[in-house]
């Protein structure tokens, strides 16, 4: 069984929700009462958001890449960032990551495509709404993103 690593603490609520959904999905597939192996690395949200607000994206990348390295060192086979905002530097983190990372943005695009959606509302932090990383990923699809 592979071990998932979660970069959490960006929003404790999203970290808890990821954990809950991973457990629920696993238990639907494996009905033997077992649980998946999960490692959670709770990061300092104030530090990360401060770096983003100061437009220190290279520092955000280094900070998050170091935290992903911790997951890998702890035994994670792959990882996820349990929030949208850090995806502002997702591609850069992936280039430095010793383990594969799953993208919320790409997973959202795939789900929208599978559902046949043509228009999708995007709500999030100011950073998520303004950074353009959702728009970049969705630009290859015929799905229009609607922002408030």
Question: How would you summarize what this structure contains?
Answer:
The chain has helices at residues 12-29, 45-53, 57-74, 90-96, 104-114, 126-131, 133-138, and strands spanning 3-8, 37-42, 78-81, 101-102, 119-121, 144-146. The chain is α/β, with parallel strands linked by helices and 148 residues long.
What number is the mean pLDDT? 92
CATH architecture of the largest domain: 3-Layer(aba) Sandwich
CATH class designation of the largest domain: Alpha Beta
**Proportion of residues in β-strands:** 15-25%
Please give the share of residues in helix: 40-55%
Sequence of secondary-structure elements: EHEHHEHEHEHHE
Q: What is the total domain count?
A: 2
- Through-space gap between termini: 42 Å
What overall form do the CA principal axes indicate?
Answer: globular
Strand order of the largest sheet: 2-1-3-4
Structural class: alpha/beta
Number of helices: 7
pLDDT < 50 runs, ≥5 residues: none
Rg result:
16 Å
CATH topology (fold) name of the largest domain: Rossmann fold
Instruction: Name the quaternary structure.
Output: single chain
Number of strands: 6
Largest sheet: 4 strands, parallel
């Amino acid at each position: 069984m592979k071990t998932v690593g979660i970069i959490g603490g960006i929003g404790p609520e999203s970290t808890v929700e990821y954990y809950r959904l991973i457990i629920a999905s696993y238990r639907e597939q494996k009905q033997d009462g077992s649980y998946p192996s999960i490692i959670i690395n709770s990061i300092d949200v104030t530090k990360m958001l401060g770096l983003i607000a100061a437009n220190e994206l290279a520092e955000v990348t280094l900070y998050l890449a170091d935290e992903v390295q911790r997951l890998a060192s702890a035994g994670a086979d792959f990882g996820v960032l349990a929030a949208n905002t850090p995806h502002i530097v997702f591609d850069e983190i992936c280039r430095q990551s010793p383990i594969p990372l799953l993208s919320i943005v790409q997973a959202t695009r795939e789900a929208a495509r599978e559902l046949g959606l043509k228009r999708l509302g995007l709500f999030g932090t100011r950073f998520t709404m303004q950074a353009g990383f959702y728009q970049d990923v969705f630009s290859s699809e015929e799905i229009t993103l609607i922002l408030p």
